[in-house]
Amino acid sequence: MKIIIMNCSREGIWYKNKIGKTYTVQKENTKDYIVTTKDAGGKLGHVLKQDAEVIEK
Description:
The chain is mostly beta strands. Helix content is 0%, strand content 46%.
């Protein structure tokens, strides 16, 4: 699944300046998509579902 960052609803989140970037989802839970990102040093980063839109299932 792929998502696009549409918003950043909380200050200090790692993707605050990544609006419009796409990421591949590794896992998800009820509130977050969990993605691998170079922006987090190649580690897993959590993206609030309310801040993203699924662009590919």
